[in-house]
Amino acid sequence: MQKDFHYFATCCAALLAGWSPEESLEIATSAQMVDMCSRTFLDKVKGPKAAVTTQLQLELMQARTDPVGLQDITRIWASFHFLPGNLSAEPPRKTGRRYLNKYRLICQPNGQLVKDTVELAKGKGTAAAGIAMHVLADTWAHRNFAGTPSLVINNTNYYFFEILDGQDRAISFRHSPGAPDDPEKGIYSNSVYQGSENSIMNLGHGRAGHLPDYSFIRYRYLPAWADYAEIVKDNPAEYWQAFCQMICALQYLRGERESFETGIYAFDTAEPRKDEIRGILEKRQPDACADWQALGEAIAGREIPDFDMDTIQNEYLSSSPEEKDRTFLGAFFLTALAQKSMVTNKIFRSGNLLAGWSVDFREKGFRGIKDYRKLVEEAMKEEKP
Question: Is the pTM of this model over 0.90?
């Protein structure tokens, strides 16, 4: 998904869930921040390096693809953008352990990790709520792809069609990062084919370009892992489910629901705005920011400003070392560390080492990346009476 959904649509969902306009903007800012918090950004603000939640294109081009480098990539993308749907899933045909572990990282909505992610954010404030909403929403857009480089999982081929007015139209892919996608002609950019299993070009939905991120598109294709079984993706319908599931999760985080269960959607809450929301989702446009912003302003009865990186960055930079963790960005870093730690631990405990090793500090003491000591210290503070 893109800024239109992660920022403006998330703000709309929070408003409908009962959060105030100020809280809703904080949740939306945190959700969008997941796509902004790269190592380059962390270097700029001198933030904890392990709090990285995304990688810029240039960073990916320079990333190592040895086992250690691949684990680093997987921790980022599986934790925040391609949450695994079933860590014990069985593939359609027998496969070796190497590919079985990659298959088990395929993103799907309504998995146990979605529930774990939302519950982890409970009581942790708006920054944590925003991160959880980004992760939840991406399980719908990015389903069927994995957050680890893999040709045998993420590759697609020439069999790729948009379903338009009930008819199939062949999609043409090109590798032209500077050229905008052209929905009217069915021309989209994607990553260059690389036969190497672990090429960075085979990360996530790179081989399908930005198609999974557009709410308006319906398409059919053959994924590399499905044994020639066709997949049909109806983004308008699935983005509607994602939006209503976000409302449900945000109602839980606000205390209006006793629990968060997967497969439950707040359709009733969204019903008064259904026609407007479905209209935005169906509109054939690569960027729906303006429409979501207008809807948010209609719901809130006030202006919904654009994402403001400068304000939250300057607050963090101007704070003393003792105050930084209490800034919005400081809270974002802590909850990002917690989310990555939780997902990495779940993957590791499933017997899958693609995201690296994970040690429970409560059992064995602190070992590992020094940035995580901040997370450990914060957890220990919370446990003190």
Answer: yes
